[in-house]
Amino acid sequence: MKITVAGTGYVGLSIAVLTAQKHEVTAIDIVKEKVDLINKKISPIEDHEISDFLANKQLNLKATTDPLAAYKDAELIFVAGPTDYDSKGNFFDTSAIEKIFDDIAKYNTTNAIICIKSTVPVDYTKTIKKQYPNLKLIFSPEFLREGKALYDNLHPSRIIVGEQSKDGEIIAQVLKEGSLDENTPVLFTSSTEAEAVKLFSNTYLALRVAFFNELDSYALKYNLDTRQIIEGVGLDPRIGSHYNNPSFGFGGYCLPKDTKQLLANYEHVPNNIIKAIVDSNRTRKDFLADQIIEKNPRKVGIYRLVMKEGSDNFRASSIQGIMKRIKAKGIECIIFEPALKEDNFFGSKKVTSLEEFKRDADIIITNRSHDELKDVEHKVFTRDIFTRD
Predict the structure, then answer these.
(1) pLDDT, tens digit (0-9, with 9 covering 90-100), for 283-331
(2) Which residues of 226-249 are buried (b: 16+ CB within 10 A; e: fewer)?
(3) Strand-strand pairing, 76-79 and 113-116
(4) Spatial contact of 141 and 160, defined as CB atoms under 8 Å apart
(5) Burial level of 222, CB count in 10 A (0-12/13-18/19+)?
(6) Which residues contact 183 (CB under 8 A, 6 or more apart)?
(7) CA distance linking residue 99 with residue 145, whole number of Å
(8) Which residues are tagged catalytic?
(9) Alpha-carbon Rg for the chain in angstroms
(10) Distance of CA 116 to the CA centre of its chain
């Protein structure tokens, strides 16, 4: 098939690489620098598998900034544009993907199947179909981790398509045939149920993060051993030992915005847990910031803004929330972040020398432990108990 993928972030680029193993794929992005890198077989994002496949696999993949070239002959189009949560309006801003729909309606000549991979509010697809009655819009949620996006596409936990139709089966087949697992579960639902699956899945993961973070807050407050408690709790097979490592809070592309969007969907539905998950993340940052402030540091070092190992994303990273609370108390912060191109971040100086950074900071806060901080371990404040994401 001729496939186009709109957007070359973690979701879009991983799908483009996955499908380019067996199909003719064009990736489109408005950022020319990213397009140029892809055409040189270089990944513009940090993802080991994507970099490896681009450099070493035979892929039928090209990239462009031209919507006519991208959409004209496409038979299947994956839409993976950004949908940011607007906290003031209390809704997902879907204008970026609607601009993509406009371009598809203008340039596509093949009545292509359009698979929405961007995260959207519950009931969005049903509503937007009325606005674009001539487009075959189908929602299929993604379940990918930052830095592991292609790996998760090669080994999907499940494939869910929000339409029970021949077109829906084509989407599922294209996604499944590029993976390495033969027995991946496939579920066909209505579009609204598929949208709900995405938001409820991420909100449950946020709930689990929040639960073990609050367990850690309790242990920290009363000088208990967090590791022993979590290990004991996790020995119950109904709970398990996964997704239980404490942190400064959940952050990144998905969990903060998806939990807030789900809560917005509960406007007319009684709830306690969903609101508590959103509130808990803020409470966790307040508590940990107070723990640091009580140590009366002159200068606090922020070691890495990125959310996790193998990722170059620090949008909405939890450590930023700690930093902002510390700075609000008049405490100076310095940052060590090789992925940061600017010389400062929200008024805090970037330090390029790790040795200078370690020397000048009275306390170094890091969301995850790192070997290169072992020589200043007495300065390090982290809640990373198990040395993993």
Answers:
(1) 999 999 999 999 999 999 999 998 766 566 676 789 999 999 999 999 9
(2) beebbeeeeeeeeeeeeebbbbbb
(3) parallel
(4) yes
(5) exposed
(6) none
(7) 26
(8) 254
(9) 22
(10) 16
The amino acid present at 244, given as its one-letter code, is: N
pLDDT at 313 (0 to 100):
65
Is the predicted pLDDT of residue 48 greater than 70, yes or no? yes
> What is the distance between the alpha carbons of residues 125 and 190, in angstroms, rounded to a whole number?
10
* HEC readout, the chain: CEEEEECCCHHHHHHHHHHCCCCEEEEECCCHHHHHHHHCCCCCCCCHHHHHHHHHCCCCEEEECCHHHHHCCCCEEEECCCCEEECCCCEEECHHHHHHHHHHHHHCCCCCEEEECCCCCCCHHHHHHHHCCCCEEEECCCCCCCCCHHHHHHCCCCEEECCCCHHHHHHHHHHHHCCCCCCCCEEECCHHHHHHHHHHHHHHHHHHHHHHHHHHHHHHHCCCCHHHHHHHHHCCCCCCCCCCCCCCCCCCCCHHHHHHHHHHHCCCCCCCHHHHHHHHHHHHHHHHHHHHHCCCCCEEEEECCCCCCCCCCCCCCHHHHHHHHHHHCCCEEEEECCCCCCCEECCEEECCCHHHHHHHCCEEECCCCCHHHHHHHHHEECCCCCCCC
**Beta-sheet pairing, 159-161 with 186-188:** parallel
CA distance 168 to 143: 18
Max intra-chain CA distance, the chain: 66
* Whole-prediction pTM: 0.91
For 82, 215, 221, the CA distances from 224, given in Å and listed in that order, are: 42, 10, 8
Closest to 143 (Cα-Cα) out of 119, 111, 162: 119
Side chain identity at residue 59, one-letter code:
L
Contact 292, 260 (CB under 8 A): no
Residue 311 is predicted with a pLDDT of 62
The per-residue b/e assignment along 136-158, b for 16 or more CB within 10 angstroms, e otherwise, is bbbbbbbbbbbbbbbbbbbebee
